[in-house]
Structures are given as C-alpha cells and as structure tokens.
Amino acid sequence: MSRLGSLGARLYRGEVGYDFVGKRMIWYGLSILITITAIVGLAVRGLTMGIEFEGGAVFTTPKTSLSVAKVQEDAEKASGHDVIVQELGNGGMRIQISGLDTATATPVQDALAKDLDVPADKINAELVGPSWGEQIANKAWTGLAIFMVLVVIYLAIAFEWRMAVAALIALIHDLTITVGVYALVGFEVTPGTVIGLLTILGYSLYDTVVVFDGLKEGSKDITKQTRWTYSEIANRSLNGTLVRSINTTIVALLPVAGLLFIGGGVLGAGMLNDISLSLFVGLAAGAYSSIFIATPLVADLKERDPQMKALKKRVLAKRAAAAAKGESAEGSDRSDGSDEPQDRVEGEAAPAGAVVGQRPADRGPRGRGKPSGKRR
Questions:
Q1: CB within 8 A of 8, min separation 6: which ones?
Q2: Cα(156)–Cα(143) distance, rounded to whole angstroms?
Q3: Euclidean distance between CA atoms 42 and 46, whole angstroms
Q4: N or C: which end of the chain has fewer CB within 10 A?
Q5: CA 65, CA 59: separation in Å to the nearest integer?
Q6: In the chain, what are the helix, strand and coil shares in percent, each to the nearest 5?
Q7: What value does the mean pLDDT take over residues 113-131?
Q8: How do beta strands 188-189 and 83-87 pair?
Q9: Nearest Cα to Cα of residue 93 among 114, 55, 120, 67
Q10: What are phi and psi of 274, to 5 degrees?
Q11: Residue 266's pLDDT is what?
C-alpha cells in the first residue's frame, strides 16, 4: 500500500488526524479575509461583461498578416469603443466591440475591410442586442436561486437544517470568491462563465455531502456515550474522508488546469478561458470550504443545542475525573499487580486531532505467578 493510501486508512480508523474543527477560528478568519478581498475587487474593478450581456458586435476576419495590436488599434479608431481582439487558429482575427448597434456596425465593418485589405463581405459580422443578454442574466439568476432553494430543502430533509445552512454558506463563499477572482483578473463574463459557475455548485456540494453523511452515521445515539463530544466526532468524520476529498479535487483540477493554461493561454481560445477559470477557482474554493468551513460550521451550530452542551459537560467531567484519578494513583500498586497504565480499548481511537502512537508492546502476564482464572 502506498504512503498516501496508508495515511488514508489511518485517518479513517482515527489513528491519526488533524484538529480542523478545533482550529476553526483560524479558517473562519482566513475565509473572511479572502471574501473581503474578493468583494473589494468586485466593488473597485467590477466585472467585465461580454457583449452577450451588454450588446455589441463580433467581427471574424479571414487570414491576415497584421498583428493583433495593429488590428486592435484600427478597430478602436473605426468604432470609437474599446476592442478585444483574439487571433484564431486559421490566422484570422476575432474582433469584439461592445456598444455597437446595427446602424454603426456596417461602417465599422467597411473600415475594417479597408484596413485589412479584404472584401467587406469576407468579414463575418454578428450583432447581439443588450435585451438578449439581459434575458440570459435573468435566467441565470433564476436558475441559481432555484438551485439554492432545492439544495437547502434536500439537505434539511436528508440530514438536518444545520447542515443545510452550513452547505448554503459554503456555496455562497465559493461563488463570492470565484466572482471576485473574475473581477481581479479582468476576464470577461460570458455565457461560458455562467455555465462554469453553475457547474461548480455541484462539485462544491459533493465533498460536503460525503462528510455530512459520515457525520450523520457517526453521531447516531451520540448522547448515550461520554467518550466524544459532537465537535470531536465531526472532526473524526472529516479526517476519515480527507484523503478522498484531496484525491478527487486534484483529479478534477488537472483537466481544468489544462483547459485554462493550455487551451486558453497557449491556444488563445476565449470560450475556454471563460469556463475554465470559473471551474478552476470554483473547484479549489469548493474543496477548501468543504473541509475548513462547512463541517466546522455544523459543529458550531450543533454545539449550541442543549443536549450537545450537556454531553460536552459530561465528557469533560469524565476526562477530568479520569485525569485526577490517574494522578492520585501514580506510583501506587494496582489491583492487578501492575504499575503501568492500562491499554487503550481495542478499536477506540484517540481524541480528535491527536496523533496516536503505537500500542505498547506485550507486557506479558499481568499477575506473575497468579492463576489465569481458568479451571481445569
């Protein structure tokens, strides 16, 4: 078995772990800082909306020897608007100009044909009205709202309302970061961006639901025991699925990174940039929120329950009593003739966040010279 697989098995059995829930204030502070940065970037720079939302024209030219900078300069001079130019694989140019209508598009097309020294009918022109973009935006917001409502209802029924609230906050966290990155980077918001944003919601929920399912199983009849608090059981569930969450996230990020850095950066495919950036940022934010935000939030909300408060008091009181008993009995003979501490109960894992060492070596019979208790 590989080291990663061995670590995953030890995490699942509770033999080793990291106290994610116990250090939740660190993750909350980090998330608040990232979210504030995203909101400030969104407020200061704003989103660069594509022509699908603002309206405008897209001109596709045949192969030309002019550079992208030269074509952009000529297009801005002819239109009087900001222009985005992308070189296509066949040597042609894609010229995107926002704010153009039918009356102004034709003169711009003629001017481009003259500058490029090609016939005007060889330049393909596509006009997009702002009303169409507004309809697309409204439908996207409607779909997002319906998705959020359905997610909350489902999680409240399948698990409980606290988990539904935590998952909703994690989703809003992921969307805010993704949109903020779009504002800071300056990528255009296109229908591909909207598709990417809606897609990452499912990825963001996947790891969260897996952890919640393990937490639901682990917390059954939790009030009937005095070994673990709810936060510790939540942390054990999170550690048990940690390696799987990391593996699935890396596997999902690799092809998306290929789309973003190779397809968008090297090949210059605009649509790939739009959808791959939202997927890349959203997947990374979703993995982070499922580990550091959603489960700690559930533990915070659950610990406010009177039953969980009473359980925590009983657990802490039992541990304090056991610690006090161990101190008073230190150095004294035990009833079984051994002055060493008892072994941990088989199958019992260490407290959340603790790293468990190896079990003590076999100490031999506890009562030297004493009968084993078997009768012949």
A1: 242, 243, 244
A2: 20
A3: 5
A4: C
A5: 17
A6: 65, 5, 30
A7: 79
A8: unpaired
A9: 67
A10: -60, -50
A11: 55
The amino acid occupying position 9 is A
The pairing of beta strand 83-87 with beta strand 93-98:
antiparallel
Q: Which pLDDT belongs to residue 162?
A: 92
- Burial class of residue 184 (count of CB atoms within 10 Å of its CB; 0-12, 13-18, 19+): middle
- Which H or E element spans position 331? none
Residues 6+ apart with CB under 8 A from 125: 57, 58, 59, 105, 109
pLDDT of 366 higher than 80: no
* Distances from the Cα of 306 to the Cα of 127, 159, 295, 303, 320, angstroms: 62, 19, 19, 8, 21
Buried b (16+ CB within 10 A) or exposed e, 235-274: bbbbbbbbbebeebbeebbeebbebbeebbeeeebbebbb
Question: pLDDT at position 5, please?
Answer: 55
Q: What is the pLDDT of residue 259?
A: 77
CA 167 – CA 32 distance, rounded (Å): 16
Q: Token digits for 230?
A: 């709810």
What angle (nearest 5°) sits at the alpha carbon of residue 85, between those of residues 84 and 88?
145
Pick the closest to residue 302 from 177, 178, 165 (CA basis).
Answer: 165
Query: What phi-psi label fits residue 56: left (phi over 0), alpha (psi between -120 and 50 degrees) or beta?
Result: left
> Which residues, 6+ apart, have CB-to-CB distance to 101 below 8 Å?
55, 127
Burial class (CB in 10 A: 0-12, 13-18, 19+), 369: exposed
pLDDT at 263: 62
The fraction of the chain above a pLDDT of 70, given in percent, is 77
* Three-state secondary structure of 276-315: HHHHHHHHHHHHHHHHHHHHHHHHHHHCCCHHHHHHHHHH
Residue 364 dihedral angles phi and psi, to the nearest 5°: 80, -170
Mean pLDDT in residue range 22-40 = 92
Q: Among 118-127, 225-234, 315-324, which stretch is predicted with the lowest mean pLDDT?
A: 118-127
Lowest mean pLDDT among 40-44, 47-51, 158-162, 284-288: 47-51
Predicted model pTM: 0.71
Residue closest to 289 by CA, chosen among 181, 205, 184 = 205
Kindly provide the b/e burial profile for residues 339-361, where b requires at least 16 CB atoms within 10 angstroms of the residue's own CB: eeeeeeeeeebbbbbeebeeeee
